[in-house]
Specification:
Structural class: alpha/beta
Radius of gyration: 20 Å
Shape: globular
Number of strands: 11
Strand order of the largest sheet: 2-1-3-10-4-11
Order of helices and strands: HEHHEHEHEEEHEHEHEEHHHHEHH
């Protein structure tokens, strides 16, 4: 088979990974201490006596990242919210390091429902021509910052000529930074990262060490990487939330295998009830929720986040049920403007029917798919 050497083909091969929104992009692993896939990962929550199975299922397999932006899954696991709603159907958990592996697990049927960033969700959706998955809920917004070395960068204008890291070519933060650069009138080649500002694609796990060593002048990164850089002497120069209407943009969604949604809607509804209940508890008990999330991180990875990283990272993340669908569309447009992909057709990626059913039952407001729903 001939090898496609086009820029877009090169970009497709290199893209894998973290937070936001391109049909041919994936989500960069952004968890601190996250571990490899584990189908046997288990929250250890007891099934209530007399509980009945949901939809006749022995288990529902739930995937997530070891990352604070997946707080709903972390807390829902640690506090037993998912198991409570699933009754005698066992909630089983798998913890992932990166979006591609979670999408692969979803496609193979080893995961039924997952917490994941927009980019891998859209990647899975578009590559399967809409057959593999649906976004059924939102989960988190925010948690992305531009952190710089204050000795080298005093203001936003000082970024010209500097080396700034993003997690990966074409990932959510990379696209956001390229768009921001363009809006300031600077020129950067999206593929190479060379131009008026040098964009360095650097894995979130190694960026703090590179920053500390002085090989980077700053980074446009998600939490907790941003707070880790601050702990190393960095300064937050810009919070990406300030660039969005209402200071909200999608960072984590809940996705489900399309076949599982069709065959087991009661199980999906149970997980969404647990998600809504977890989010309500998190927002009502932020300090306890922060500690709960950190305990689950420690259980999953063997290492908890230190307070100087945990506290500021937690404050910058908004936990919600709304998938903020309009922001996903905007992020896709940013990628198109950067020349990283053609305009995608995202209509049908959302199915918010069960979420809105749960929200109505809870007396809450329903959410909108921004024209990208199945109906």
């Amino acid at each position: 088979m001939p090898v496609n050497r086009s820029p877009r083909a090169i970009w497709l091969r290199r893209s894998t990974a973290v937070l936001a929104v391109l049909p041919v992009l994936t989500l960069a692993a952004c968890g601190y201490g996250s571990k490899s896939d584990s189908d046997d990962a288990d929250g250890g929550t007891k099934v209530a006596a007399g509980a009945k199975k949901t939809d006749g299922l022995d288990s529902v397999r739930i995937g997530y990242f070891g990352n604070l932006t997946h707080a709903t899954a972390l807390v829902g696991n640690q506090k037993g919210f998912f198991q409570k709603e699933l009754g005698a159907t066992k909630a089983k958990y798998a913890v992932f390091n990166a979006g591609p592996s979670e999408i692969e697990a979803l496609n193979s049927g080893s995961v039924d429902i997952g917490w994941i960033g927009p980019s891998p969700a859209i990647n899975g959706y578009t590559k399967s021509r809409g057959k593999s998955l649906r976004i059924v809920s939102g989960s988190a917004s925010g948690g992305v910052k531009l952190v710089v070395n204050p000795k080298k960068v005093k203001s936003l204008d000082d970024l010209e000529g500097k080396k700034i890291a993003t997690p990966q070519l074409g990932n959510t933060q990379d696209v956001a930074f390229l768009n921001w650069i363009a809006e300031r009138g600077w020129k950067v080649d999206a593929q190479s990262g060379k131009g008026d500002v040098t964009v360095v694609r650097s894995d979130n796990k190694v960026t703090p060490d590179a920053f500390k060593a002085g090989s980077l002048d700053g980074a446009w990164v998600p939490e907790p990487t941003a707070s880790k850089l601050v702990a190393e002497g960095g300064k937050v120069l810009l919070d990406e939330a300030s660039l969005w209407p209402d200071k909200k943009f999608v960072i984590t969604n809940v996705v489900v295998r399309a076949a599982f949604l069709k065959e087991h809607p009661k199980a999906v509804e149970a997980v969404l009830r647990a998600s809504v209940e977890t989010n309500k508890w998190i927002n009502a008990n932020p300090d306890a929720a922060k500690e709960s999330a950190n305990r689950q991180l420690e259980k999953d990875s063997g290492k908890a986040l230190p307070a100087e990283v945990l506290d500021p990272a937690w404050k910058s993340i908004t936990i919600l049920d709304d998938p903020l669908a309009a922001t996903l569309n905007t992020e896709a447009d940013h990628a198109v403007k950067a020349g990283l992909l053609e305009k995608p057709d995202l209509k049908g990626i959302y199915d918010l029917t069960l979420l809105n059913k749960v929200l109505k039952a809870e007396g809450g407001s329903t959410v909108d798919a921004a024209g990208l729903g199945t109906q």
